[in-house]
Amino acid sequence: MATIEKYMSFTIGSRRGLSDTQKQVLASEFQRSPEASQNRLSGRMRPHIAELGEFGRVVIKHYFRGGILRHVNRRTYLKIGNTRSRAEFDFLNQVREMGISAPVPVAFASRTKGVLFYHAWLATKEIPGAKTLADLSRTAPERAETVLPEVATQINMLVCRNILHVDLHPGNILIDENGRVYIVDFDKAELYPKTGARLAGYYLERWHRAVVKHELPLFLHEQIEKAVPRD
Predict the structure, then answer these.
(1) How confident is the model over 98-127, as pLDDT tens digits?
(2) Which residues lie below 8 Å from residue 58, measured CB to CB, with a gap of 6+?
(3) Which of 35, 83, 130, 143 is the most exposed place for a label (fewest CB within 10 A)?
């Protein structure tokens, strides 16, 4: 269960409530304009980092539309069911309980735009010294190779637990300063109703497509292909 609080024009949710100072920090970050990301595999917008008291440094994610719709409606969503940020916050808690290595969710927020629409944000604990597997494969390929067995373990766990991560690729795998692997960006993720073999095939095909499209070292795909069985 989440504690829902109103602060200024924002609706902010967290596991046990936030102090007024923490809500003030978050509200200030939500109103900042994010910078465009220089790396397409790391998302279209660069997340903010903020100091949030007892939580330490947190990553502030702004939700933006992808695909053709982004040219018409960049960041406004229709208010039907849970907000995007609430859904990802809840799913992160769920997958972490299942043993998946994912960021710690701290808070989610939304702000109403008119009667039917909203903007959304998510705050997660920062992963110290994190680099994407995509970046690591280019700058430190030996180090990237050493973490691939754990990356495969995490992907196999997603398959075994029927978790559909809709955008799994080397840019959404983070490696911290101690070599621990994290899967990020569970936006629109869900429990998959079909067989594990189909889910494994989906992951491998999407992973391979990203490696080829972004001209990443082929060992990223070759080793994952060997370690993630399709049946």
Answers:
(1) 999 999 999 999 999 877 889 999 999 999
(2) 49, 50, 51, 52, 106, 107, 123, 124, 125, 126
(3) 35
**117 and 201 together in one domain:** no
- Crossing angle (nearest 10°) for helices 196-213 and 141-160: 150
CA 120 to CA 188: how far, in whole Å?
Answer: 13
DSSP 161: T
Do 8 and 120 reside in the same domain of the chain? yes
Same-domain check for residues 118 and 84? yes
- Residue 170, classified by CB atoms within 10 Å of its CB into exposed (0-12), middle (13-18) or buried (19+), is buried
Examine the domain organization and report whether 145 and 180 are in the same domain: yes
User: pLDDT of 162-179, one tens digit each?
Assistant: 999 999 999 999 999 999
Q: For residue 42, give Cα distances in angstroms to 170, 185, 201, 213, 220.
A: 9, 10, 23, 14, 17
* CA–CA distance, 74 with 126 (Å, rounded to integer): 26
Domain final residue, candidates 92, 125, 158: 125
Q: Do 119 and 137 sit in the same domain of this protein? A: no
Mark out the alpha helices in 4-140 (DSSP H runs): 20-30, 84-97, 133-139
Q: Which of 68, 100, 125 is the last residue of a domain?
A: 125
For strands 163-164 and 173-175, give the pairing. unpaired
CA distance 181 to 174: 6
